[in-house]
Known about the structure:
By secondary structure, the protein is α+β, with helices and mostly antiparallel strands. The chain is built from six helices and seven strands, in the order E-H-H-H-H-E-E-E-H-E-H-E-E.
Amino acid sequence: MKYVMRSVRADEWPLARELRLEALQDPVAPVAFLDSYEAAVARPDAFWQDRTAAAAEGGDVQQFVAESPEGEWVGTVTALVERPEDDVRFGEAPEVVQGHLVGVFVRPRVRGSGVADALFRAAVEWCWSLSAPRLERVRLYVHEDNPRAAAFYRRFGFVPSGQRMAVPGDVGAWELEYVMERERG
């Protein structure tokens, strides 16, 4: 089946909410997301409207979805811009302007079909397409107990940076940073 990779639109918040809630019910959700189904399902519509509007085309955050010809969303990834002067969202403040990929999810029935690769291509291409600011690298974090995701990120071209951050609320657990540097030339 052919899927279209595209940015969300602000009015699509019900679909964004539905996909996020499904992602938070996935068996690896506790090591894949810094959120829970119980917390997410209790959030009001205004939260989802604001979140989706902030990730719609045109800003420093872009949520990409894989959409079937019938309009079903089967996967998502969000890319955001981080600057050294910004408030720290994850880990430490970056030393360079960079992209950060978060919220990766592909519905189980389409895993292995190339949807994750296509989503990552769209997100990374968006990061590299920015000229103001020009991003020097793209990073993401993966829980140390999520080898399936880590293997995908390595296959896609991300490499461990050696940096890690503690998982909030999970004493002794670590999120490992993976990076992709902009090609020089």
